[in-house]
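Per your request, structure below.
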């Protein structure tokens, strides 16, 4: 009886394993069959459409539309990159292309230079902000799109191109030699005072970590013994660059990020491999709702190790990793292959795309489902909705008139006019337009279209739409009109009422004409609430240390 009892004990697990293996094989086969079947149906449909549809069709265009529609069902980051877009994709990941080195855009019905990059052909040749591009070589580009003009300016390095522009009333031609353009990940760094260094990291393309390293070393050599790393508005990029940047501040052998996906080959733990530049320097990292991906890895890892105080607003919440997969005919696919987890063990992905696919709506992780984790010092941090700063800073809100003056290009146009009337200005951090300059701006606005609706006017208008439907509307109509008359804005008065903020916006735009992107960033740091708060942490060691201890949260 004992022997008879033992035999099933031995064989039942074997039978179960065999059965589960057969079942798994069957499921896999069913999936492969469904995949092959649907690919065959899709190919047959395209072929029959090409044969029978009443009008001529473009198979390439239809297939691309179909592919993009399919990928949109997954998440915003999984993309198809056809061969003709591979150069643009390469530029996004490496920050490199061959061209003249200028940002162009459509203003006033034409394409103009918005920013020549320092040290590259456009700036070296003398092209200026607000130059309208009217011809490239012999091609009239007055009616071409911005993307078409951009492509004409690009080309193999060391080839020549002639650019004809309209500057005020003059028509000027410039001869340029295209060069390999490497866009800076660190467009500006400098000292904010005798002791405080500042690094603006705008992107995570190739060499981002080297640029941050060089900036850090230079600032320390200049006497900086505390640092602000600005990751605001940084959309992220290359994961390995994020790991290298964290390594500048924490010791060798520490985990920075772990990626976990469906396939074993995407599961990987990234650790620091080098001796840090400075593991003691007091550090504040600035983040906001547009800090994403690699920027969140840097901010989150430094927070998890209690190596930096985070100041600003909650980050975007992109905890997904994309891998570029080569396809046939030189096409590529950027596919979400994993989620990433920072040292405390948390994933900061804010949107559950799997759940969104099921119910058709974008679903964020509810607060009730966010899990608690702990930093190295025992501070509580949460997963599932971006990186929370240690100290919050409210977003700056501008008056409607300021938005309107910027959107209508009135700030831009006045700055250009100012530039051609004034040969030089003081340094970016100290420059401010004078009261007389502001009066000149007010005169400049005379006859210009810059109408807008204030927040109060919009609220009253919305209220009136509802009240009009009520039976007592006629009784209160006169009072409504009286209130509207009292709050009705005066454009001229608003220019004076909001002089301080408009003046600052004007000053920053004018600075860009003389000092380009670097100067505009530096000028924007003056009276920046997040920067001021960061400096207060760095200038008060007790406040800085207390924030990084377990009792801080």
């Amino acid at each position: 009886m004992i022997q008879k009892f033992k035999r099933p004990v031995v064989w039942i697990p074997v039978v179960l394993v065999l059965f589960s293996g057969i079942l798994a094989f069957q499921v896999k086969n069913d999936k492969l069959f469904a995949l092959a079947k649907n690919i065959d149906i899709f190919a047959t449909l395209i072929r029959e459409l090409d044969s029978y549809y009443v009008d001529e069709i473009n198979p390439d265009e239809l297939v691309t539309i179909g592919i993009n529609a399919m990928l949109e069902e997954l998440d915003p980051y999984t993309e198809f990159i056809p061969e003709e877009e591979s150069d643009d994709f390469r530029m996004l990941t490496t920050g490199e292309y061959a061209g003249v080195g200028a940002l162009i855009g459509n203003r006033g019905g034409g394409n103009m230079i918005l920013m020549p990059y320092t040290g590259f052909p456009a700036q070296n040749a003398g092209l200026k902000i607000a130059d309208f591009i009217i011809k490239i070589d012999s091609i009239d580009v007055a009616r071409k799109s911005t993307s078409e003009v951009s492509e004409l300016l690009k080309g193999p390095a060391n080839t020549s191109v002639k650019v004809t522009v309209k500057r005020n009333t003059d028509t000027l031609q410039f001869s340029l030699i295209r060069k390999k353009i490497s866009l800076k990940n660190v467009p500006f760094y400098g000292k904010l005072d005798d002791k405080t260094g500042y690094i603006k990291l705008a992107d995570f393309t190739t060499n981002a970590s080297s640029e941050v390293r060089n900036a850090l070393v230079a600032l320390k050599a200049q006497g900086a013994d505390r640092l602000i790393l600005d990751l605001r508005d940084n959309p992220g990029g290359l994961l390995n660059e994020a790991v290298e940047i964290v390594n500048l501040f924490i010791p060798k052998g520490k985990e920075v990020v772990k990626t976990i996906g469906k396939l074993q080959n995407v599961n990987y733990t990234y650790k620091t491999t080098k001796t840090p530049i400075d593991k003691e320097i007091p550090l504040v990292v600035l983040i906001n709702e547009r800090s994403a991906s690699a920027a969140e890895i840097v901010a989150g890892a430094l927070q998890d190790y209690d190596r930096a105080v985070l100041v600003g607003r909650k980050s975007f919440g992109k905890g997904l990793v994309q891998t570029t997969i080569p396809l046939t005919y030189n096409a590529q696919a950027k596919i979400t292959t994993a989620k990433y987890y920072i040292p405390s063990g948390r994933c900061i992905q804010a949107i559950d795309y799997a759940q969104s696919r099921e119910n058709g709506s974008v679903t964020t992780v509810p607060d009730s489902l966010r899990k608690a984790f702990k930093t190295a010092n025992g501070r509580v941090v949460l997963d599932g909705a971006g990186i929370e700063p240690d100290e919050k800073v409210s977003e700056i809100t501008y008056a409607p008139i300021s938005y309107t003056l910027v959107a209508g290009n009135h700030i831009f146009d006045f700055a250009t006019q100012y530039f051609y009337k004034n040969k030089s200005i003081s340094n970016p951090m100290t420059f401010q337009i004078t009261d007389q300059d502001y009066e000149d701006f007010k005169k400049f606005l005379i006859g210009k279209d810059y109408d807008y609706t204030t927040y109060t006017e919009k609220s009253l208008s919305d209220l009136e739409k509802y009240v009009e439907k009520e039976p007592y509307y006629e009784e209160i109509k006169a009072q409504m009109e009286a209130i509207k008359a009292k709050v009705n804005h005066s454009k001229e008065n608003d220019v004076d009422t909001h002089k301080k903020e408009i003046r600052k916006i004007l000053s920053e735009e004018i600075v860009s004409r003389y000092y380009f992107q670097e100067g505009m960033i530096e000028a924007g740091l003056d009276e920046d609430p997040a920067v001021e708060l960061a400096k207060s942490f760095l200038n008060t060691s007790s406040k800085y240390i207390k924030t990084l201890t377990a009792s801080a949260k």
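The CA atoms of residues 379 and 550 lie 4 Å apart.

Regards,
D.
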